[in-house]
Sequence to fold (243 residues):
Amino acid sequence: MHGTELWLTKIFNDHLASLGNFFLGLVNMQPEARPWVNHITMQLLVAFIIIVVFALLRPRLSANQPGNFQHTFELIYDFVLGQADEQVGHDGRRYLAYFGTIFIFILFMNLVGVIPGFESPTMSAPVPLGCALATFCYYNVVGVQANGIVKYLGHFVGPIPVMAPLMIPIEIVSHMARPLSLTLRLYANMYAGEQVTMTFLGLTYFIVPAVFMGLHVFVALLQAYIFMLLTMLYVAGATAHEH
Fold:
């Protein structure tokens, strides 16, 4: 856990410790006196916020009189759709649900740290790792669905069969490095950004903290975009049809 126990985590540990230990038991971990950690409770909070946001958005959808709330998410949708079309091609819309989900989830997790009393769960390594592993599994699964298992595995061989003994290990290492790269990039940037912001908030007041809070928001947006973009590139490579 980074720093001290957040107030929300304290509530979970004071009143829901048995539930936390139940989940620990599911993965064969020993029960603890205070099983909840900050990055878990923050993820649950972000998931709850996203559910509430879309629950409020759904009844307000209108083709004739869209409000500002709807316009905001239409901009996000158009942005993600445009990136999918550009990076993946005409089949990009098939994977739009995952692209949008990973972008919004990471963005909200990055931004929740701006709220006093909370912290970004992405500044804890297990959270970016979980997102990276989800992306790793996703692009491999859709790659097999798009090409079939034989043709998909043929990507590892390379265009020249005689080079297969060299290409296969290289491709395996390359693919296995992707989750590590995604994890380190998101974790390192968010952790560093959080520490810099909190340091200056503790030393100065008014204008200077506002500048660093703005920088934190920019980093949050950028890192969510980069994670989504790399996910699109991996999906594009996995689903490409070779002729």
About this structure: Residues 78 and 84 are 10 Å apart (CA to CA). The mean pLDDT is 89.
